[in-house]
Amino acid sequence: MLPLPSTSLRALPPSKEIKKSPHQLAALVHEVRNPLANVNLAAEMLATMITSDDQKLYLDIIMRNSIRINNVLTDMLRTFQPDENHLEEHSIHELLDEVLAVSMDRLRLKNIIVTKKYLKRDNKILVDKLKLKIAFTNIIINAIEAMPAEKGVLNLVTRSEKGKPVLEIKDNGVGIAKENLKQIFKPYFTSRPGGMGLGLSTTHDMLESNHVQINVRSAPGKGTSFILSFEGVRQGGISHDISSSVI
């Protein structure tokens, strides 16, 4: 079986096509929050009138994700400030589980199966937690969007290679054409209708600032794997049996 084509973040130049202006970002956040506040108010009013359990379910999704959008906007403002990374020791497994929790609505709406194969010994990494969570979220959301409803399988695997903690995020989605593989981290590049091409560019910058090495393997019709290699701090005594779960 031939190996899937791959590309590495280390071979890519730093992204310089997007100039990050805190003032422009703050103005954008302000403009987004205004209509978002209207959405929240309308949802709260609907909550007092709706009696159907099915309708309440979808209204809860709207309200929960409105809060999520507001939190993401706040995180963006903090992330793009020109200060140093806020480096602390964190568990890879705990970061992954937190990202899965905020991605739960999308996973459930598409009935995607999630399998987790975690090392029994959790690895601690020295990273900026917020930036890593944004990067993990972007990769997982891309995977969800690439997979078909009812048939999608998202695999999360942690392992150790040459003494370094490694995370693999793998989907069984549409895959990426070979000619596009080296373009995916470039700002504004997208092959998805309606896409802006900024998610993976931002992910590239977040991972690069945390000294994370990334390799992407993909082929049309065979899915995509993001393989992230970290500088480990230490191995903890947290026990995680290899597990599989459906979300």
In short:
By secondary structure, the chain is α+β, with helices and mostly antiparallel strands. The chain has helices at 22-47, 53-79, 92-102, 104-109, 129-146, 178-181, 199-209; strands at 6-8, 87-91, 113-117, 121-128, 153-161, 164-171, 213-218, 224-229, 232-239, 243-246. It has a seven-stranded mixed beta sheet, covered by helices on one side.
Written account of the structure:
The chain is α+β, with helices and mostly antiparallel strands and 247 residues long. The chain folds into two domains: 6-16 and 88-246, 2-Layer Sandwich (Heat Shock Protein 90), CATH 3.30.565; 22-79. Helices cover 42% and strands 25% of the residues. The chain is built from seven helices and ten strands. It has a seven-stranded mixed sheet with strand order 1-7-8-6-5-3-10, covered by helices on one side. Helix 1 runs antiparallel to helix 2 and helix 3 (92-102) packs across helix 5 (129-146). It is globular and about 60 Å long. The chain starts with 5 loop residues before the first strand and ends with a strand. Mean pLDDT is 82; it is low at 9-18 and 237-246.
